[in-house]
RNA sequence: GGAGGAGUGGCCGAGCGGUCGAAGGCGGCGGACUUGAAAUCCGUUGAGCCCCCCGUGGGCUCCGUGGGUUCGAAUCCCACCUCCUCCGCCA
């Protein structure tokens, strides 16, 4: 959620931002509609004005109520009969005011809900250096790390991870489908060890960088999910909900790490707070299908080590943290020996909470293309405002402390399923075995994964 | 799951249906003392929102959350959430 002052003080900035983000706030004003950004801002302003006008009227009535109640207190000194008469008048007046105020309160609540609902859908502002546009060509290539293997020179055609993994018997999608449905799977023997090894490896790197380790809940209240900027309900939601409970299966530990400190006020000296979270992640993957979704690449459940930071509410500070996150992600995949590229994601592809986002895309020989393996976003104060995560800050004045919203940065250390895809495809050998990346060997306990 | 108890400001903790945004303490900030620090003493210190003639201006709200009773609710009633104690069950 953005600061409402932007709507009131700088609507042009809001309109320009909407235009580059291409995220619809109102369903009947999609980004394809003419002047949709301007029309969206106009409607938001109108909702805000309506709410404030009603609120003002309600507060006036409340003020009168308070005056009646206060007048009642001064009655004690009067003679009994006069006191009774005054009392009767005041009670009647107070009662009438209460009735009116209640009617108005309903309208105020409705107007407020309408404004807030719309406002919550307005995307975050955007980093000035983020590339504009949308679509795969719009992203800015920042770096390429590692060199893809020359399989032709090695004399064989690389297979996709599913073929290799099933050949090795380290993944079982049939059993997954039988038990939980399509896009569920079992990791078996060395597959299970590989999964755990990736978790341990990522955690060790995170801890070395000063992140405090957490195994988080895999479920969270819908309110927390929404607070992080995810849509917990609705036809196109990526989030599973639990029936008869106000709970969602989390799509990422970003939700549980970010929600940890909801409604708290931190000490400025405690920032930045660096958290690592291990959780299962669940995604409905509504509407996703096709070759790119094959096998372990797009599944309903996977395990992930997430990095999370709460920083001072200063764009330079969170921006620096964001680059630090990117460096850690690069370190992790460089360590795994996977060739990848780093993209500065275009404005039209950013999710609503992100101010800026970098993706790591691994080279996947089985596909002959790149596929996203990790992602890191600076969400500035967008999530903190809704979750009410603040810190006491020494303001410009002497000794005065002011509460400010923290900035929140998240990033993937490792999503095991996709890392396994990248490892299996990049480390496969002509005989169908897979070499274990050196950094994982202590935990996998072998150099090569071969069929049992 | 059953039976009790409790949720108050950054933290701890008092609070009678009206003078309670709320005692007291800690912490923070400013000052005195000190070469400096500690100790001591004095003062000060909640948040969110709305309006305007934008000021040492006016108003509204907030005591777990949401409802209710009342002219008036931190205080009374109901529901929910969370925590604690005891019992039961259980990896």
Sequence-ordered SSE layout with sheet pairings:
Layout: H1 4-9, H2 11-21, H3 36-73, H4 80-120, E1 140-145, H5 151-154, H6 161-168, E2 171-172, H7 173-179, E3 186-187, H8 190-208, E4 212-215, E5 219-221, H9 222-227, E6 240-241, E7 247-249, H10 253-259, E8 264-267, E9 273-282, E10 301-311, H11 315-336, E11 340-344, E12 356-364, E13 369-378, H12 382-387, E14 389-394, E15 401-405, E16 407-415, H13 416-426, E17 434-435, H14 441-444, E18 448-449
Parallel strand pairs: 4-9, 8-14
Antiparallel strand pairs: 1-11, 2-3, 5-7, 6-7, 9-10, 10-16, 11-12, 12-13, 13-16, 14-15, 17-18
Helix pairs in contact: 2-3, 3-4, 6-13, 8-13
This protein binds one RNA strand of 91 nucleotides through helix 3, helix 4, strand 8 and strand 14.
Give a written overview of the molecule.
This protein has helices spanning 4-9, 11-21, 36-73, 80-120, 151-154, 161-168, 173-179, 190-208, 222-227, 253-259, 315-336, 382-387, 416-426, 441-444; strands at residues 140-145, 171-172, 186-187, 212-215, 219-221, 240-241, 247-249, 264-267, 273-282, 301-311, 340-344, 356-364, 369-378, 389-394, 401-405, 407-415, 434-435, 448-449. The protein has 14 helices and 18 strands. It is 42% helix and 21% strand. The strands form 5 sheets. Strands 1-11-12-13-16-10-9-4 form an 8-stranded mixed beta sheet, sandwiched between helices. It has 2 domains: 5-119, Helix Hairpins; 136-449, BirA Bifunctional Protein, domain 2 (2-Layer Sandwich), CATH 3.30.930.10. With 452 residues, it is an alpha+beta fold. It binds one RNA strand of 91 nucleotides through residues 52, 55-56, 58-60, 62-63, 65-66, 68-73, 87, 90-95, 97-98, 264-267, 390, 392, 394, 398-401, 403.
């Amino acid at each position: 959620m953005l600061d409402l002052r932007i709507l009131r003080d700088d609507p042009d900035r809001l309109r320009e931002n909407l235009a580059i983000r291409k995220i619809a706030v109102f369903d009947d004003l999609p980004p394809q509609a003419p002047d949709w950004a301007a029309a969206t801002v106009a409607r938001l302003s109108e909702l805000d004005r309506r709410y404030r006008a009603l609120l003002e009227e309600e507060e006036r009535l409340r003020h009168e109520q308070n005056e009646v109640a206060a007048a009642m207190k001064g009655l004690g000194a009067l003679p009994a009969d006069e006191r009774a008469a005054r009392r009767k008048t005041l009670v009647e007046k107070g009662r009438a005011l209460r009735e009116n105020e209640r009617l108005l309160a309903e309208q105020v609540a409705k107007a407020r809900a309408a404004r807030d609902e719309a406002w919550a859908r307005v995307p975050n502002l955007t980093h000035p250096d983020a590339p504009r546009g949308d679509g795969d060509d719009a992203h800015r290539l920042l770096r390429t790390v590692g060199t893809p293997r020359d399989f032709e020179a090695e004399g064989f055609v690389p297979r996709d991870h599913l073929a290799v993994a099933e050949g090795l018997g380290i993944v079982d999608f049939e059993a997954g489908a039988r038990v939980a449905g399509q896009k569920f799977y079992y990791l078996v023997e060395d597959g299970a060890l590989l999964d755990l090894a990736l978790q341990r490896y990522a955690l060790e790197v995170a801890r070395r960088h000063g992140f405090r380790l957490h195994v988080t809940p895999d479920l969270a209240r819908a309110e927390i999910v929404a607070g992080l900027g995810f849509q917990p309900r609705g036809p196109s939601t990526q989030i599973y909900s639990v029936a008869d409970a106000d709970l969602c299966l989390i799509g990422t530990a970003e939700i549980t790490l970010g929600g940890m400190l909801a409604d708290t006020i931190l000490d400025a000296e405690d920032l930045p707070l660096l958290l690592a979270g291990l959780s299962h992640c669940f995604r409905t993957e509504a509407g996703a299908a096709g070759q790119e979704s094959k096998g372990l690449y797009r599944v309903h459940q996977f395990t992930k080590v997430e990095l999370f930071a709460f920083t001072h509410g200063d764009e330079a500070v969170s921006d620096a943290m964001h680059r630090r996150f990117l460096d850690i992600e690069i370190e992790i995949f460089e360590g795994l020996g996977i060739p990848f590229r780093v993209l500065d994601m275009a404005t039209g592809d950013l999710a609503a909470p992100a101010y800026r986002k970098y993706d790591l895309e691994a080279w996947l020989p089985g596909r002959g293309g790149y596929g996203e393996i990790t992602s890191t976003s600076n969400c500035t104060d967008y999530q903190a405002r809704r979750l009410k995560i603040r810190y006491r800050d020494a303001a410009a004045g002497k000794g005065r402390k002011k509460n400010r919203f923290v900035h929140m940065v998240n990033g993937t250390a490792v999503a095991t399923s996709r890392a396994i895809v990248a490892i299996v495809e990049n480390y496969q050998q002509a005989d169908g075995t897979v070499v274990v990346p050196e950094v994982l060997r202590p935990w996998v306990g072998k150099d090569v994964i071969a069929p049992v």
